[in-house]
Design a protein that fits this description.
The protein is of the alpha/beta class. The protein is built from 6 helices and 8 strands, in the order H-E-E-H-E-E-H-E-H-H-H-E-E-E. Strands 1, 2, 3, 4, 5, 6, 7 and 8 form an 8-stranded mixed β-sheet that branches.
């Protein structure tokens, strides 16, 4: 995979204002609930690493973009996270190379907007979660406001060019529910200091229904 070398190089800089504006605190609150064997999808440059606690016994980080994965490995060397066992796997969220029902927690932060198929990724999340496991996510989603949703549709293509394939108009909650996840634990929120078309978001936890 060729990946996006320029986007990978600018990613942390692009998110700096949003992180300082509250996203960093949102990450910490979300990841405080990660437990046991944990899988993070699209770990990017490793912005979540500092927020995992020692309640996570093993951390598996997937990242399909080789340029992101290289930066992720460097951050692991420079800033080892709390979990003692950490592994990086270069794999997409739609095709996870793991057995069914093997993770206590699956984590996704600002990832499902840019995967090739959010429906396939949601089905993979449900597949690899243990029956009692939780999916912890922080994702920007399609707006419930019709006017803003229309702008998300209109700007989907140019925004994707800027954001390495990001789709601002995905109904991620519906995709998760279709995959068999119970989403009552996901709360609507706003992504801080972000352009309007990517401000609507959900965060929290979901569980397998079957």
């Amino acid at each position: 995979m060729r990946g996006h070398p320029i986007f990978a190089g600018l990613y942390n800089l692009m998110l700096r204002g949003t992180e300082r504006g509250g996203l960093r605190d949102m990450r910490a609150e979300l990841l405080a609930d990660a437990r046991g064997r944990t899988l993070e999808l699209g770990a990017g440059t490793g912005l979540n690493l500092a927020h995992y606690t020692d309640a996570v016994t093993e951390l598996v980080l997937t990242e399909p973009d080789p340029h992101m994965a290289r930066r992720l490995r460097k951050r692991l060397d420079d800033e080892p996270p709390a979990p003692a066992r950490v592994e990086v796997v270069e794999a997409p969220a739609e095709h996870l190379p793991f057995e069914d029902g093997t993770f206590d927690s699956v984590v996704s932060t600002l990832v499902l907007c840019s995967v090739e198929s959010s429906g396939a990724a949601a089905r993979e999340i449900a597949r690899v979660l243990k029956p009692e496991g939780r999916f912890l996510c922080l994702e920007h989603v399609r707006s419930g406001d019709r006017g803003l949703a229309r702008w998300q549709d209109r700007l989907e293509r140019p925004w994707g060019w800027l954001g390495a394939g990001c789709h601002p108009n995905r109904d991620t909650v519906a995709e998760l529910e279709a995959a068999g996840l119970e989403t009552a634990g996901l709360a609507p929120d706003l992504l801080p200091k972000a352009p309007p078309i990517v401000r609507p978001m959900v965060r929290g936890g979901a569980r397998r229904l079957r």
